[in-house]
Write a structure and sequence with these properties.
The protein has one domain: Arc Repressor Mutant, subunit A. By secondary structure, the protein is of the alpha+beta class. The chain starts with a helix and ends with a helix. It is built from 7 helices and 3 strands. Strands 1-3-2 form a 3-stranded antiparallel β-sheet. It is globular, with a radius of gyration of 17 Å.
């Protein structure tokens, strides 16, 4: 993309990059999205895969992703209650972004520039 196109896309309105970052910003959101690419997961399954995240942080990040329409939360009427999280169609549309981030991170881990 050339400089003129980049600047015209962001004139008098939020930049599309800013819009994307508003949805996926946060230390854990991209990791949550990456984990959910594999399918539905329960809260504790996610928590076990993300050992450094606190219960509260995971709850808040999932709520924000749900609010933005990227993640769907399903509560089943069972005792004890069962809750599952999955990506919506909008969430799956972010798969190329998440995969690109994965690939970039893998390349960087192999050849860090320090």
């Amino acid at each position: 993309m050339d400089k003129e196109t980049i600047n015209s896309n962001c004139k008098n309105k939020p930049c599309p990059v800013e819009t994307t970052l508003n949805i996926i910003s946060g230390k854990w959101k991209c990791i949550i999205l990456y984990r959910l690419l594999g399918g539905k997961m329960r809260f504790n399954e996610l928590k076990r895969l993300m050992i450094n995240i606190t219960h509260r942080a995971l709850t808040l990040q999932l709520r924000e992703l749900e609010h933005d329409g990227v993640v769907k939360r399903t509560v089943y009427a069972e005792v004890p209650p069962r809750v599952e999280y999955e990506l919506t169609a909008l969430g799956f549309s972010m798969e190329p972004i998440i995969n690109s981030m994965y690939d970039w991170g893998l390349d960087y881990q192999k050849n860090p520039i320090v």
